[in-house]
Amino acid sequence: MLNLAARLALRAQGKVEPNPLVGCVLTRDGRVVGMGHHRAFGGPHAEVEAIRDALRRGESTRGATAYVTLEPCNAQGRQPPCSRALIEAGVSRVVYAAADPNPAKAGGAGALRDAGVDVQLSDASALASGLSEPFRKRVRTGLPWVIAKWAQTIDGRVATRTGESRWISGEWARRRVHALRGRVDAILTGIGTVVTDDPMLTARLAHSPRRMATRVVVDTDMRLPLDSQLARTAREVPTIIAVERSMACTTYTAPKRAAMDQAGVTIIPIADQGHGHGLNLPELLTTLRRDHHVCTLLVEAGPGLMGSMFEEDLIDEAVVYIAPLMLGDEQAKSVAVGRSADKLSNARRFALTRVKRVGPDIEAVYRRTRDGARV
After folding, report:
1. Contact 6, 131 (CB under 8 A)
2. Which runs of consecutive H residues, i.e. helices, occur in the chain?
3. Cα dihedral angle (186, 367, 37, 183), rounded to 10 degrees?
4. From the candidates 17, 47, 244, 363, which is the catalytic residue?
5. C-alpha triplet 337, 368, 16: angle, nearest 5°
6. Region of 156 on the Ramachandran plot (φ > 0 left; ψ -120 to 50 alpha; else beta)
7. What distance in Å separates the CA atoms of residue 291 and residue 305, rounded to the nearest whole number?
8. What is the DSSP string of 125-192?
9. DSSP secondary structure string, 82-96?
10. Which of 182, 196, 341, 344 could pair covalently with 206 via S-S, beta carbons 3.0-4.6 A apart?
11. What is the pLDDT tens value at each position of the chain, 375 positions in all?
């Protein structure tokens, strides 16, 4: 039942953020009597949707069991508390997959117990337990959920030694990437990728994008070409360049800043880590979350920036497309560079959560693990 609730919740990916994805299934006498999920930010929560579904079916919710992916909320927000809705519906048992980390809304389990409802926290469904990890991370750290995406050959190369990478993956995989772009708040890349590939970073191959992702370029020295596709379309698609702090105020860059402003490009100053290590990436992520409301960030970048993101341990999830190609060239480009890892214990460990065949390619999804537990 928790698996089913999680699959219901996933239908709204890209529509509910900054709220968490939540699904709910109601059962009674061994039958499913109601199902619901949080469909859109500001709309009814999953528990209310499931109760309404049961009533539409002519089913009673008295004595029912509710399976919910997240602890029912316990405070008035845009919607009334779900704990109260479950109590008023006469639900006798609630099984939930993860505790609500939001101190303003937590306490639903206690309120339900006080009303005589049997409440159980269950880890029986890894899918349901992991569903709210992005939300829990945002509440806990103030940082967005970061997804790294790349396409690679069987031997882990993302481009030839000359930089050729179009196209390692097939059309089906590229369509899935565009669908993913249409579900995130922002897409992060590096200036090297922009100069080399001149990407658009839009969800133009997706049938119905749910969000227009802001394009963010790590551009320490303000090198973004004004004739690039990103700059030329900045009035239609929000575009940000993150530059070293002094570059955002020196008279030397004043003409370029004026041209960027004219094009519609937003400049955000970020501290330099010094010693040639580039921008302070944790500060960048904090700024994107705090000032630009980025809940979910997709990283599509070259080996340098990708390596820095892994070195700073900022990647929460990896979506990897493995193509049936073998280069066997030690000078071909790898996924990430710049880290020093002389022992396996220095590796960043991930857990495989899903594998799917996509045309001729394989889509593998991983989540970061720490001390044997997922993020």
Report:
1. yes
2. 2-10, 46-56, 82-88, 108-114, 126-131, 133-141, 171-181, 191-197, 229-232, 254-263, 281-292, 303-311
3. 20
4. 47
5. 115
6. left
7. 22
8. -HHHHHHTHHHHHHHHHS--EEEEEEEE-TTSEEE-TT---TTSS-HHHHHHHHHHHTTSSEEEEEHH
9. HHHHHHHTT--EEEE
10. 182
11. 999 999 999 999 999 999 999 999 999 999 999 999 999 999 999 999 999 999 999 999 999 999 999 999 998 777 889 999 999 999 999 999 999 998 888 899 999 999 999 999 999 999 999 999 999 999 999 999 999 999 999 999 999 999 888 899 999 999 999 999 999 999 999 999 999 999 999 998 887 788 899 999 999 999 999 999 999 999 999 999 999 999 888 888 999 999 999 999 999 999 988 666 789 999 999 999 999 999 999 999 999 999 999 999 999 999 999 999 999 999 999 999 988 888 898 889 999 999 999 999 999 999 999 765 555
Beta pairing partners, 350: 368
Query: Which residue, chain included where needed, has tokens 């880890």?
Result: 123
Query: Is the bond preceding 360 in cis, omega lying within 30 degrees of 0?
Result: no
Cβ atoms within 10 Å, residue 113:
13
**Token code pair at residue 343:** 């022992």
Does 47 qualify as catalytic in the annotation? yes
- The sign of the CA dihedral 125, 137, 350, 335 is positive
